[in-house]
Fold this sequence. Notes:
Oligomer: single chain
Order of helices and strands: HEHHEEEHEH
Radius of gyration: 16 Å
Structural class: alpha+beta
Strand content: 15-25%
Amino acid sequence: MTLDELREIAENEREEQKKISRRLNVCVAAGCLSQRSDQVLKALQTAVQARGLEGGCKVKGVGCMGLCAAGPLAKSEPQHTYYRGLTPEHPEVLSAIVDNLDGKPIPEFALSPEMPFFAAQQKNCTGELRRDRS
Length: 134
């Protein structure tokens, strides 16, 4: 593969990413995976597809989000809302998350990114560097 081919692939990927306005990131690291987050991921993907949202909403598995005790975790963007304790046994909750991607979080399962646990973190490797820290 040539450098020009790689650049073309990268440009095509950037263009595809611009189409995605909403994201659901599901933790599939060991702690959440042991609580069947892979099934939560599949259920959320199915819910997005059933609503015809897959062109503008990306559901993907990601690494550890840090709060393993509250897992399985998912994070909704652009809301910046974490959801805790998700299970495939509660498809109505997963459906509600998808139905409210642009609205208010589901209070029974939502965790604010401003809660002390998350607010104090500086994520150096995940692209979430906080520039407002001294």
